Amino acid sequence: MRVVRSSARASAPGKLVLFGEHFVVYNNTAVLAAINRRVNVTVHVNNTDNINITSDLGLIGSFKDSRFNLLSGPQETRAILAPLCECARLVLSERGCNRGLDIDLVSNLPESVGLGSSAACCVAITAAVDALFHKPDRYWISEKAVESERLIHKDSSGADCHISTFGGLMYFVKNEGFKKIYSKKQLSLGLINTGRKHSTGKLVSSVKKFKETNVSLFKVLTLFSEIISQKAFVAISEGDEKTLGNLMNQNHVLLQEIGVSDKKIDELINICLTKGAWGAKLTGAGGGGSIIVSFPPNNYELKVFLDSLGKSELGGQSIPVKVDFSGVLVA
Ligand code: PMV
Questions:
Q1: Active-site entry in 160, 240, 266, 324
Q2: What digits encode the pLDDT tens for the residues 264-323?
Q3: Does 309 fall in a domain?
Q4: Is 160 found in the same domain as 210?
Q5: Within a domain: residue 55?
Q6: pLDDT in tens, 195-210
Q7: Contact criterion met (CB below 8 Å) for 325 and 167
Q8: Helix/strand/coil for 297
């Protein structure tokens, strides 16, 4: 296939796992929401064989076949940029084209804190590169982005790429697919970034170990996770945020059991609950990362607490978020 344009832009949103993280890797239900924070990608065809990647994190590198030229950034730059290069190469190879590309990434989505930045990068790069050839199809984008995300963490459920591609609220099962959830109400959600970065791959591996050494317990926890996600689906559809908060608390206990929460996360959650939150839980892989909080919109005490986080010794930062209904956008 020939390129029909010399440049393209795409952007893809981050996400929150509202319910079912980790258990979704084992084919149980997760409930997710896309958020109004995005990774923006611009792709230009160049006249070399190189794939040059520039990220606003200060990472710049150039790939030619299996060689890498580090132009800016720390030692790990190659490991961070290589899956993104492979993501672009996958699309080029699917389209039977071997052109060099300049890829620029700009993001307002904090990375490695459970908000789906890797998936959003894969979705936006897949969409932007494919747009050089024709109008991309969302199902194709999500399928190819999942393949690329698995280069970053091999056991990925694929949930993040799906929600980033399609946006909105979603009920997702790895081997079955997804359905959109339509809520009667705009959900009132708070988000705390603890500022402590995690490796999703390592946490997924630690849960795998837990599963293998606690076979019966993991089965019971899985059953609970499934029931919680099913109830959450109904609560979101009905806009019943109080029930949703309660289910978040129950889901967090499961995440504590499988060892992905920690003292700091639990402390922040407890404070939110004493200040009147309906519920709170870690979101994403855990081990640091982020926390979601469901609370009555008129709870000013909690709002003040969240706003003050950056200045307090508790650390962390409150990030205002809304559900994004657009998904991946191509220009
Ligand atoms: O922390 P994140 O944004 O990488 O989310 C990981 C979600 C998991 O369920 C733990 C893994 C997965 O692939 O679904």
A1: 160
A2: 999 999 999 999 999 999 999 999 999 999 999 899 999 999 999 988 778 889 998 999
A3: yes
A4: no
A5: yes
A6: 899 889 999 999 999 9
A7: yes
A8: coil
